[in-house]
Design goal:
Number of strands: 22
CATH class of the largest domain: Alpha Beta
CATH architecture of the largest domain: 3-Layer(aba) Sandwich
Shape: elongated
Mean pLDDT: 91
Strand order of the largest sheet: 3-2-6-1-7
Number of domains: 4
Distance between the termini: 63 Å
Largest sheet: 5 strands, parallel
């Protein structure tokens, strides 16, 4: 008999993936299946196991992937299979999320259930816009209400007349479709027409936008600013505090959209850094890193790995691939000769080596093949057995340079960058973005293949490169280089973008 699984209703928070709870993250990392909402969950799917089943239960105007009854039954059926199931819901499961219905369905079937609260957008979105829902001497209470009741109800349950008379802040979720009529109803019932009001769209996300107006003008102001769902409406004196408390606009990339073209598995560090600086990050993984099934010369190289007196690693991927191949033979980095000189092309590669128990003896000042050759200038390499572990198709500069100095070089190609197929919607968003980052020549070539050379060539003032080799590939594709990293690292790329973006007049 199949072991009984479990179900956890997890609040995903208001949208920013960093605002999920620690417990919510823990459950996502171990779940066998994850049933996701449309809003506030996309970035969190990256936390799931690669083999986890991801089931779309999202609702949107005019579209519903699953009915509520189907969602309830899906949770029960998956748990009955013996799976650990996370129902990932935007905001908090019990704040207009129908989490109560799902919890009752799971409990009715006698299945193990856990509730993990989430940060509701009712307080998070206003807070991200500098609007405190309570403030001493301004508002000592707040009321949260939905502006979109169940259309199957025989009559409206919300008493707008009573809400108009209720002191304090009024927070309205899902009310954009009826904003004008709601404002009119509140004014007719006694709320002052001139009372401050605000709308916050995509609260807590880098794409967040907001307007502050009055109750009488908020619907028109939101329409003029082209604000729509998802959004939170705030009515009350606290809305007027937004200009004094606003904190998001001071980040150097606030309001800018930046495309990350790195492989999905490597995008997180760059995406995280950009997001912290206020950018809306669009991950467009145009390549993926694939190990070579049968690298030429692999068995010969591994069989005499202890004979090399210099081992050169030109990327983090090379470190991982070499260690994986050693592990396949029941070995690890201890198989490398204790006196071998270990060369890492940059600090990220050196850090990955150290994480594997191997300290780099040399990290050049310039993080490219020419930098390694320059750092070794003056060393006698005559007859020295050298292993260069790298990607297929890498430039011959390093191997040719070492060979020219008398070294006996074995080149071991362990992996390759192969084309990935991003979602077409992401490609469209990428073409409208403010900046596009490129961390390798392979990302440039694949990007050009995806969007076409004509559209790529029109990216004037938008392409950001990690270094001179990548920049040369951009120019070969007639793509102007807006900024180039120095040093040629992820932090260097982010710094170069911030400096250039700050001075581009936008």
């Amino acid at each position: 008999m199949t072991d009984v699984g479990w179900v956890a209703l997890v609040g995903a928070g208001p949208g920013d993936p960093g605002l999920i709870t620690v417990r919510g993250r823990e459950l996502l990392e171990v779940a066998d299946a994850v049933v996701v909402d449309r809003l506030g969950t996309e970035a969190l799917v990256a936390l799931c196991r690669p083999d986890a089943r991801i089931i779309d239960a999202g609702k949107a105007p005019g579209r519903q992937a699953l009915t509520q009854d189907q969602i309830n039954q899906t949770l029960v059926d998956l748990a009955r299979e013996g799976l650990g199931v996370v129902r990932l819901k935007g905001g908090d499961p019990f704040v207009f999320g129908r989490g109560g219905e799902e919890a009752m369905a799971v409990n009715a079937d006698g299945l193990p259930l856990e509730i993990v609260p989430g940060i509701t957008s009712a307080i998070a979105a206003p807070g991200a816009a500098g609007i405190p829902v309570t403030h001493r001497a301004v508002a000592t209470s707040f009321t949260v209400v939905t502006g979109h009741e169940d259309p199957t109800k025989p009559s409206e349950q919300t008493d707008w007349d009573a809400l108009a008379r209720t002191p304090g802040t009024l927070v309205i979720l899902m009310g954009m479709g009826r904003l004008a009529s709601i404002a009119d109803r509140l004014i007719a019932a006694g709320r002052p027409e001139g009372q401050p009001a605000g709308v916050v769209q995509w609260g807590t996300l880098p794409r967040q936008r907001q307007v502050i107006a009055t109750l009488g003008t908020i619907a028109r102001a939101a329409a003029d600013a082209d604000l729509g769902n998802p959004a939170v409406v705030v009515v009350g004196e606290v809305a007027a505090l937004s200009p004094e408390i606003d904190w998001r606009g001071f980040r150097p990339l606030a309001g800018r959209s930046v495309v990350v073209t790195r492989a999905r598995a490597q995008a997180s560090e760059l995406s995280r850094r950009l997001g912290q600086l206020g950018a809306e990050v669009i991950e467009l993984p145009v390549i993926r890193i694939a190990p070579l099934a049968e690298p030429p010369g692999l068995m010969s190289v591994l069989g005499r790995i202890g004979d090399y007196r210099m081992v050169v690693l030109t990327s983090v991927n090379g470190v991982d691939a070499l260690c994986a191949r050693l592990a396949d033979r029941g070995a690890d980095v201890r198989a490398i000769h204790r006196d071998a000189r270990i060369v890492a092309i940059g600090p990220a590669t050196a850090a990955r080596l150290e994480g594997r128990g191997l300290r780099a003896d040399l990290v050049p000042d310039a993080f490219l093949a020419e930098g390694i050759l320059a750092a070794l200038d003056g060393d006698d390499l005559t007859g020295v057995p050298v292993l260069v572990a790298r990607a297929r198709g890498a430039r011959p500069t390093l191997v040719d340079g070492l060979t020219a100095r008398g070294a006996r070089v074995d080149e071991l190609e362990l992996y390759e960058a192969v084309a990935d197929a991003p979602d077409p919607d992401r490609i469209t968003r990428a073409l409208d973005a403010d900046y596009v980052t490129f961390t390798a020549s392979s990302t440039v070539r694949r990007f050009v293949e995806l969007v076409g050379p004509d559209r790529a060539a029109r990216m004037s003032g938008r392409a950001v490169s990690i270094g001179p080799v990548t920049s040369a590939t951009l120019r070969d594709g007639a793509i102007p280089v807006f900024a180039e990293a120095d040093p040629h690292t992820i932090p260097g790329l982010v710094d170069a973008l911030c400096r250039a973006a700050g001075g581009d007049g936008q």
